[in-house]
Write a structure and sequence with these properties.
This protein has about 140 residues and is α+β, with helices and mostly antiparallel strands. The chain is built from four helices and three strands. The longest helix has 10 residues.
């Protein structure tokens, strides 16, 4: 997404031409990433994640008509049969969740994939089988 901009990694002693570049807080990047529902590789659940549940199709990150990649048969079959059961949701809040809300999320099998705080707002990315309205009900108490 164009909202994400670019990330540049360099060693402290490396020099580069920074003309035209603006530095932003790393949490700003994560806030934008969560808003765009972009999952980073370390947030995937090893040996359990199906990339279609993590929005890869919506991001145009998987091709169903070409190529050969690990798990292609599973991904194509899942897409063809419409068996994507989980989906991502992102929300922003003024305060962090209480222990009671966290427990309610866990009890309803809602996984917090990513969380960040920027400008006094908490951004969360969830993965769940429940609907958006059901998730809102759990969060609102």
């Amino acid at each position: 997404s164009s909202k994400l901009g670019y990330r540049l990694y360099c060693l402290n002693n490396e020099s580069f031409d920074s003309e035209g570049l603006n530095s932003v807080d790393y949490n700003y990047y994560h806030q934008q990433r969560i808003a765009c529902q972009i999952v980073e590789s370390h947030e995937l659940i090893k040996e359990k994640s199906i990339i279609l549940e993590f929005g890869y199709k919506k991001q145009n990150a998987v091709a169903f008509d070409k190529g050969c990649y690990l798990g292609q048969e599973l991904i194509t079959r899942t897409e063809r049969l419409g068996q994507v059961r989980k989906q991502l949701f992102n929300f922003e809040f003024e305060q962090e969740f209480s222990d009671q809300t966290l427990q309610s999320l866990t009890d309803n099998k809602v996984k917090i994939i990513s969380k960040t705080k920027f400008n006094d707002k908490f951004s969360y990315l969830f993965l769940t089988k429940i609907t958006e309205d059901e998730l809102k009900d759990i969060i609102s108490g």
